[in-house]
Amino acid sequence: MKTFTLLLFFCAILLFNAPQADAINLQKKEVPEVEELDNAPNLFKSDNMFFSGQPNLETFEWLKDQGVDLVINLRTEGENEDFAEEAFNEEEMVAKLKMKYVSLPVSGYDGYTPENLEKFAEAMNGKYKKVLIHCGSAGRVTNFMMAYMVEYKGYKLADAIEFGEQIKFSFPLENLLKEEIDWQLK
Fold first, then answer.
1. Rounded to two decimals, what is the model's pTM?
2. CA atoms within 13 A of residue 163's CA, in its CB half-sphere
């Protein structure tokens, strides 16, 4: 009888706390501010994260001086090879600067998968002080950050979009309709 009573007690606690937990999860979170930096094209900063298109050597060195200790590259192997032929091997250069390097190739819509988002989240696990996330122009970066905010940080989609619009996200349909679209996940 004691076991049944104890079980009933815990079920009641869960039942009464569930709506409160949902209300906490649905509260609007403060959307992080993004600052556009003029050290390189498409270079942005928010808290301990930097977002960019393909950085050049000087930008990588500057980012190292800023304390960046993790680089997440969303460019494809082909893009990386082409860049290495024109400029330098990014992975080797990042290693020389004593930063951790993670390559997560994202190509077209096929690269926008839950599995790649999970790998992205694993790389963003908090072990690093400052992070650079880059691709070719900061477009893929923006989409991955927005999805990461929703799936792993508890932001509403509308808030993640507000964050993304400070970087490279745009939704031309809003311009065509001359009104803001209300974003909600169902």
1. 0.80
2. 26
